[in-house]
Amino acid sequence: MPSGALFDLGWIPRRRRPATARSVLAGEAAAEAARKSSQEAPPAEETEAPAEPDFPVVGDTAAAAFFDLDNTVMQGAALFHFGRGLYKRHFFHKRDLARFAWQQIYFRLAGSENPEHMADVRNSALSIVQGHRVAELMSIGEEIYDEYMAERVWPGTRALAQAHLDAGQKVWLVTAAPVETATIIARRLGLTGALGTVAESVGGVYTGKLVGEPLHGPAKAEAVRALASAEGLDLSHCAAYSDSANDIPMLSLVGHPYAINPDSRLRKHAREQGWRLRDYRTGRKAAKIGIPAAAGVGALAGGAAAAVALQRRRR
Questions:
Q1: Which position among 68, 243, 247, 263 bears the catalytic label?
Q2: Residue 68 known to be catalytic
Q3: pLDDT (tens digit per residue) in 244-278
């Protein structure tokens, strides 16, 4: 069945956009899924966190904040942590874990969208969940969050998100990770909801296809644009936070862009544009290459090392 038939997108205004049709579809599907999940989310837990003096503006209902996930909110890649949890539960073999880990580290270090490589990453993830029930993956995702993700949230970024919540603003994760995984993380952090890659499901079972494409690069910007339109937000009042130059389209949409733990390209661009920067990593090397420096906490880097080791054993 056509993937678009699974979503009622009548509320989204149709207009000409520079992104590809698949990027627009991915963004709009992510926005629709995020709005639905946020309506069912429990109220955020109250925690104390100091707000910046002039921003965010308390009571500005036209403002919201959008946070990238990997290496912005969380150390390492959420999708790889999720894969580790599924491997532990015998969803796939060791060779698949090695390949998946290598794809993730290559993608992060390359910092660019190679169509063939992106397709390989996408197909690997979809092959793992195809035929499984959405409810099953959601339940397992809760366990995986506790096992691998909870202790990897950057306290500094968490405080920034809390400042927006304390100001009465909605806060959304925006990530290429599956929307189900992203929604779990957002709920655990007390955020409003999440925009993530939408995998097609029929009768509550994953088909192994995506709605549009992975929520990456331009697709993220389209998702933010669609959600802002539906929520009545003024993007010039909104903030966005990311570590990657791939998210420059999303950061450029808002009036308050932040570079968090930026890679070298984003750091350079942010300085040229006068954007605010925050770096919660330790070590100058991490600032240069854009991955966590602390041993044992950067699961993305650890996953790459594991992949290399496993590849060598097989030779």
A1: 68
A2: yes
A3: 999 999 999 999 999 999 999 999 999 999 999 99
